[in-house]
C-alpha cells in the first residue's frame, strides 16, 4: 500500500500564503495546521505528529533555516520542506545540511508540493523496515530551473535584473536559459 501525506504543518509568517496553501491541501484531503512563527510551529509539533512540515526561509524572529534542526529533533520522521520566495543552490545545500529534505520556491503549487513530499516520504521510509533511510537524491538542474524562474518572475522577466538577483553575469544567465528552456 502506498503511503501518502495525510497531515501537514505549514509554518509561514505570510497569512495569505499560509491560509491559501492550507485550503488547497485540505481540498486534497490533507489535514493541515498552520503556525505564524517558528515557536508556534514547534509547539504544534509537540502536540501532534505530522507527515510533512513546510517552513518559510525568511521569518521575522527566527529564520526557517536556523529552525530546521529544531523541527527535525521534535519530528525526526516528518518530511521537512523549506519554502522560499527566492532560492538558490547554496541555500538549498545549506537547508539540506541543516536537516531539510528539500527546498522549493514560492509560490508553490499544492499538487507539486504533495508529489515531492510523497516521494520524499517513500525515500525516507524503506519498506524493508528497521533499516536506515535510503539516501535522498536531488536534481540540481530542476532546482536551478526553479530558482531561475523565480528570479525572472521577481524581476518581471528582465534578464539583466534577474541575473543581478542570482548574483551571476547576464550572459551566463542567457546561456543557462537557452540550455534549460
Listing every helix as H and every strand as E from the N terminus to the C terminus, the arrangement reads: EHEHEHEHEHHHH
Supply the helix-strand structural class.
alpha/beta
Cross-sheet strand order for the largest sheet: 2-1-3-4-5
Q: Can you give the helix content as a percent range? A: 40-55%
User: Mean pLDDT, nearest integer?
Assistant: 83
Tell me the CATH architecture of the largest domain: 3-Layer(aba) Sandwich
Main beta sheet: strand number and arrangement?
5 strands, parallel
Number of domains: 2
- The named CATH superfamily of the largest domain: Response regulator
Assign an overall shape. globular
Number of strands: 5
Q: Whole-Å distance between the termini?
A: 37 Å
Radius of gyration, Cα only, in angstroms? 17 Å
Count up the helices: 8
Q: Which consecutive residue ranges, at least 5 long each, have pLDDT under 50?
A: 125-136
Strand content: 5-15%
Q: What is the CATH first-level class name of the largest domain?
A: Alpha Beta
CATH topology of the largest domain: Rossmann fold
Describe the structure.
- The chain is of the alpha/beta class.
- It has 2 domains: 7-124, Rossmann fold (3-Layer(aba) Sandwich), CATH 3.40.50; 140-180, Arc Repressor Mutant, subunit A (Orthogonal Bundle).
- 51% of the residues lie in helices and 14% in strands.
- The chain contains 8 helices and 5 strands, in the order βαβαβαβαβαααα.
- A 5-stranded parallel beta sheet has the order 2-1-3-4-5, with helices on both faces.
- Helix 1 (15-27) links the parallel strand 1 and strand 2.
- Helix 2 (38-47) runs parallel beside helix 3 (64-74).
- The termini are far apart.
